[in-house]
Structure formats: C-alpha cells, structure tokens
Write a structure and sequence with these properties.
This protein is an alpha+beta fold. It folds into three domains: 9-55, Uridine Diphospho-n-acetylenolpyruvylglucosamine Reductase, domain 2, CATH 3.30.43.10; 65-175, 2-Layer Sandwich (Uridine Diphospho-n-acetylenolpyruvylglucosamine Reductase, domain 3), CATH 3.30.465; 182-295, 2-Layer Sandwich (Enolase-like, domain 1), CATH 3.30.390. Helix content is 35%, strand content 25%. The protein has helices at 16-26, 39-44, 81-86, 88-93, 95-102, 107-112, 115-120, 129-134, 152-155, 230-236, 247-261, 272-295, and strands at residues 9-12, 30-33, 52-55, 65-68, 72-76, 138-143, 146-151, 156-158, 161-162, 169-175, 182-189, 199-208, 211-220, 227-228. The protein has a five-stranded antiparallel beta sheet. A four-stranded antiparallel beta sheet has the order 11-12-13-14. A three-stranded parallel beta sheet has the order 1-3-2, with helices on one face. The radius of gyration is 19 Å and the shape is globular. Bound molecules: flavin-adenine dinucleotide (FAD).
Length: 296
C-alpha cells in the first residue's frame, strides 16, 4: 500500500567531501537522495525509513557526460536518464546505453532519475546494468579522503545492496572505448515500455571479419543481480558468423545456454520458466540484429 512519506530530515550538500563526511557521521540512518524516483517510492511503501536524506542534487559537475579517445566515456552520477538518451556521443559510440535510457520508465522519470540512482538502487532489473556489464564499465566512488574504482561486475552484491561503504558516494561511471569491430545492443521485455523489465539482455560482439572474436552477454531481472552469461559467451567465442550452414543452430544454442544460466524467481511480473524463455528470445533476437548490422 502506498502511504504518505514518513518523517525525515533533509540536508542538502554542495560538495562530494561534505557528503561523504556527513554520510560517515550519520551512520546507517542517512541515505543519499538524487532524483528520488526509487527512494521516495520505497519510503512511501515503508520498505525503507531513513531518518536523514542527503540531497546531492546541488553538487556541481556531477551531471556531465565527457568522452575522449584515450579515456573513453565518463558519465557523472547525477546525469539524468534524459540527458543520456539525448547525448549524441553516447548514441553514436555506445548505442546500448542509449537504448537502455530510452526504455527506462516514463519521460517524467527520465527527466529526474539519474544513472547514479539507477545503479545505487541495485535492482536486479536496473536498466543500465546489462549494457554497462558488457562494456566493462567501472564506477568511481568517493569516500572520506579516498577514491576507488569498482568494476561494475563487483558492484552489485544482492537485491538493493551494492559494494558501496556507508561513507561512499558514487560519483562517476567510466566506460572504456570499444575495440574496433564491436557491435552492441540492449533489449528489454516488459508489459508496457515504461514498466520495469521482466527480463533484459545486452550483447556486445567483437567481430574480426566474420568471426566472433569476443562475445559479451549480460542479463537483467533473471537473477538476484544483473550478471554476465559466461557459458553462453564461450559457446560463441571464436565461431564464424558468415551465414553458412549451422549458423541458425549455433545462435539457438547460445540463446538456450544463456536461458539455462539464468536463475529467475517467480513474482507478480512473471514466472521463472517464462523469464527463461524470454532470455532465449532476447539473446536470439539480439544476436540476429547485431549480425545483420555487420552485413548491412
Ligand atoms: C514509474 C516508475 C517507472 C520506473 N521504470 C524503471 C525502468 O523501466 N527501469 C529501471 O531501471 N528503473 C525504473 N524505475 C526506477 C528509477 O526511476 C530508476 O532506477 C532511476 O534511475 C533512479 O534514479 P534516482 O536518481 O531517482 O535515484 P534515487 O531514488 O534518488 O536513489 C535510488 C537509490 O540510489 C542511491 N543513490 C542515488 N544516487 C547515488 C549516488 N550518487 N551514490 C550512491 N548512492 C546513490 C539512493 O540512496 C537510493 O538508495 C522506475 C521508477 C518509477 C517510479
């Protein structure tokens, strides 16, 4: 049942250092507030009742998208979903990230929700997680007096729990430039476009001519955390994708292995068996589309 918000103290900070220091002093009763599209809903459902919200929206320079050929892409934690969807560099060089942004929630949610909040919420269905897993991204985290980079594969611990310590703030998402010949895609299945995913998949295939030099396949909403389907990747690594005999069977095999690697639960959005079927469908469709692009 959706109730009113419980009572809380709101503190706004203006620097990363001030935020980390306040987080450290406040202990478990304080949480960071960015767009509030996850946090405030959880508070209304009484799934969390923090005593203090630390509003970080006023910290300058955490909402920038930068790209260069040496360091790759950097997306500030406060960058809105809408800004990611609209970014020409992301659309051109990292299309799977743009695709994830464009199917996340409604335009109202995209206007205020942030990438830091999407990852910080650690939902198994977090839209940005699968593409960032295939891209080998890391998150930059600032703590009191220290910074560290956490590979995205190590960031999600369990539903709602990340590798962030109590005094740490996610400040930036870093994505290395893609190897040449790489093609990526993100696909989501939900009842309506704005709904949270019942299952999602991101693929990144690095082609060397018509050979799959490296396959990266990541799945969302079909396990306690988003994860790479490594057996499915191995099934495809080194295989020729020239449209010859046996290719359809190979792609079906990769999709089947990915479905077997998933371990979804039954919930009100879908049964586990249905979700596994969706994984096979999404991975198969993703492979077909990526391969078709290389032949266009
Ligand atoms: C109607 C509706 C539809 C939605 N649809 C989707 C969907 O289709 N796909 C999807 O993935 N999500 C969806 N969401 C969830 C949500 O909108 C997104 O996850 C959004 O990106 C959250 O960002 P936010 O800035 O609002 O986070 P907030 O609610 O402010 O924060 C979320 C969590 O992250 C923490 N946090 C925020 N920023 C940081 C930071 N910089 N460092 C450390 N911790 C931080 C907060 O403490 C909190 O625990 C939907 C939500 C609603 C209400």
């Amino acid at each position: 049942m959706l109730l009113g918000l419980p009572e809380f103290e709101l503190v706004s900070t203006e620097t990363v250092e001030e935020t980390c220091s306040l987080l450290s002093r406040s202990g478990a009763q304080a949480v960071v507030l960015a767009g509030g599209t996850d946090l405030l809903v959880k508070m209304k459902h009484r799934r969390t009742i923090p005593r203090r919200l630390i509003n970080i929206k006023g910290i300058p320079n955490l909402n920038q998208i930068r790209h260069d050929e040496r360091d790759g892409l950097r997306i500030g934690a406060l960058t809105t979903i809408q800004a990611i969807e609209a970014s020409s560099v992301i659309g051109k060089k990292f299309p799977a990230v743009k695709q994830a942004a464009s199917v996340l929630g409604t335009s109202q949610i995209r206007n205020v929700g942030t990438i830091g909040g999407n990852l910080g919420n650690a939902s198994p269905s977090a839209e940005f997680a699968p593409p960032l897993l295939t891209l080998g991204a890391s998150v930059r985290c600032a703590g009191r007096g220290a910074e560290r980079l956490i590979p995205i594969e190590e960031f999600f611990i369990s539903p709602g729990k990340t590798a962030l310590r109590q005094d740490e703030l996610l400040t930036e998402v870093q994505v290395p430039n893609l190897p040449s010949g790489a093609q990526g895609i993100y696909l989501k299945h939900s009842l309506r476009k704005m709904d949270v995913a019942i299952a999602s998949a991101a693929l990144l295939i690095v082609f060397d001519g018509d050979v799959c030099a490296e396959a990266r396949i990541a799945l969302g909403a079909v396990g306690p955390v988003p994860f790479r389907a490594k057996k499915a990747e191995q099934t495809l690594n080194g295989r020729k994708l020239a449209g010859g005999p046996g290719e359809i069977e190979l792609l079906e095999e990769v999709a089947r292995v990915a479905a077997e690697e998933s371990f979804p639960i039954d919930d009100f959005r879908g049964y586990a068996g249905y979700r596994r079927k969706l994984v096979a469908m999404l991975v198969g469709k993703g492979l077909e589309r990526v391969i078709a692009r290389t032949r266009a």
